[in-house]
């Protein structure tokens, strides 16, 4: 019996291109649904799916300051579902699944505004 609440692999966004640009400061991600996102390394670093950033449960996300000048120095494929991004500050523990990269692209405006607001609230700098 098929569980219809699960998204089939055919319905999931699948990257057709991952390309670094602007000396590693920009990741261009194109998907099979026709969407293309230009994601800054700083944004990807502060939204890393790693436990170091996200914490170990709901509401534990950490604000990561001082990443304005970070870049991506390498992209490593992980199976057929994700990429590990290696950042110039040594961070490399987050696995960016295709679904998460698509979400970061779709929700960029809101997530980035939230990040900037939290920096301001805490008196921290980019």
Keywords:
126 residues; alpha+beta; NE0471 N-terminal domain-like; 3-stranded antiparallel beta sheet; 4 helices; 6 strands; 27% helix; globular; disordered N terminus
Brief rundown of the structure:
This protein is an alpha+beta fold.
Please, how many domains?
A: 1
Number of strands: 6
> Given this structure, which CATH class is correct?
Alpha Beta
Strand/helix succession: EEEHHEEEHH
| Order of the strands making up the biggest sheet | 1-2-3
Helicity, in percent? 25-40%
| CATH-level-2 architecture | 2-Layer Sandwich
How would you describe this protein?
The protein has 126 residues and is of the alpha+beta class. The protein has a single domain (13-122), classed as NE0471 N-terminal domain-like. It is 27% helix and 27% strand. The protein contains four helices and six strands, in the order βββααβββαα. The chain is globular. The termini are far apart. Residues 1-5 have low confidence and may be disordered.
């Amino acid at each position: 019996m098929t569980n219809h609440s699960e998204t089939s692999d055919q319905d999931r966004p699948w990257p057709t291109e991952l390309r670094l640009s602007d000396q590693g400061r920009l990741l261009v991600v194109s998907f099979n649904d026709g969407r293309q996102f230009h994601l800054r390394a700083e944004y990807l670093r502060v939204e890393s799916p790693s436990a170091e950033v996200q914490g170990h449960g709901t509401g534990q996300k950490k604000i990561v300051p001082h990443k304005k000048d970070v870049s991506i120095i390498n992209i490593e494929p992980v199976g057929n579902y994700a990429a590990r991004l290696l950042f110039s500050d040594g961070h490399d523990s987050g696995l960016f699944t295709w679904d998460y990269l698509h979400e970061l692209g779709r929700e960029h405006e809101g997530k980035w505004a939230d990040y900037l607001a939290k920096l301001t609230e805490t008196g921290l700098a980019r």
